[in-house]
Write a structure and sequence with these properties.
about 130 residues, about 35% helix, binds zinc ion, five-stranded antiparallel β-sheet, globular, alpha+beta, Heat Shock Protein 90
């Protein structure tokens, strides 16, 4: 049918947001929050990848970002599970600077490899690194 609109907002699972503590418990707290709030109806198959990638982004945020760190989980219906991590530093993650001892660059490389799409949006207030999985 011509003009049939894509489903862009999920009617099953509402968007959820969490302020993540800036310490070593952050990745496990973020994974637990994701498991509680992700959309089981549309995206049960991508939960493992989403947990892995959210750990990487949160670890990056804790190590290199600035508080507050906010995790947002959104379902866009069948078009994707969107996970965004916002922090208070406008400095974008630098994948190319990573050495063998620096797992922050590997984190972004993993996001690039496994996600359907991803990106970084910066503003005066900080940056948001996001990815989608379908
Ligand atoms: Zn959904």
């Amino acid at each position: 049918m011509i003009g049939c609109p894509e489903i862009l907002v999920c009617d099953v699972t509402p968007a959820a947001e969490l302020n993540v503590p800036l310490d070593t418990t952050a990745p496990s707290i973020a994974r637990a929050f994701l498991r509680r709030t992700y959309c089981d109806a549309h995206h049960a198959r991508v939960l493992d990848e989403a947990e892995l990638l959210v750990s990487e982004l949160i670890t990056n945020g804790v190590k290199h970002g600035a508080p507050p760190i906010t995790l947002r989980v959104t379902c866009d219906g069948t078009s994707g599970l969107r996970v965004a991590v916002r922090d208070g530093s406008p400095r974008a993650p630098q994948a190319r600077d990573a050495g063998p001892e620096d797992d922050s660059g590997r984190g972004i490389a993993l996001v690039d490899m496994l996600s359907t799409s991803w990106g970084v949006e910066t503003s005066d207030l900080g940056k948001t690194t996001w990815f989608t999985l379908t």
